[in-house]
């Protein structure tokens, strides 16, 4: 079981690092992820709003009013929201990983649960963060609209309408400041991911 857990952690780490264009210059840390993230998300939005007014300040939490919401075992995960309450409701993750963010200047805290992973992004110089990514990793979970890995893209069209961006390999739906990315392979959905770009 430890070997399987270690292999899963290495796989998540490899996926996180492969999305960076300069992966060779990045380093990762795995210890202290839970403590660091808990500390990082403890500040109030008022403090964050003050920081965002300063020149060169860290990024503010995105507007979440129209964003995608993923429901995992009765817990609503709102893309772009402050993560403290959500992480408490989800309970202890199977694995945690801390890596430099590939998309922004800051750190990603990746929490792996059964059938999905959740990423909290914390900007450099900020003590707060937001939920920046949710990746479904199995067909045992589905979106609130009932979309699962393994279904055809046409099922997605029937549930979400036409995507804002569509290629043979990826469909992108946008809602508020969030996106739903569907990776397509051999006529099936092979990956479902929510993210704040």
Q: What structural keywords apply?
A:
two-stranded antiparallel ribbon; 10 strands; alpha+beta; 197 residues; single chain
Distance between the termini: 35 Å
Indicate the overall shape: globular
Indicate the radius of gyration in whole angstroms: 17 Å
Class by alpha and beta content: alpha+beta
Q: Biggest sheet: strands, sense, closure?
A: 8 strands, antiparallel
**Could you name the ranges where pLDDT drops below 50 across 5 or more consecutive residues?**
1-19, 21-58
Fraction of residues in β-strands: 25-35%
Walk across the major sheet and give the strand order: 3-4-5-6-10-9-8-7
How many helix segments? 5
Give the fraction of residues assigned to helices. 10-25%
The total strand number stands at 10
Instruction: Give helix and strand order, one letter per element, not per position.
Output: HHHEEHEEEEHEEEE
Mean of the pLDDT scores?
Answer: 79
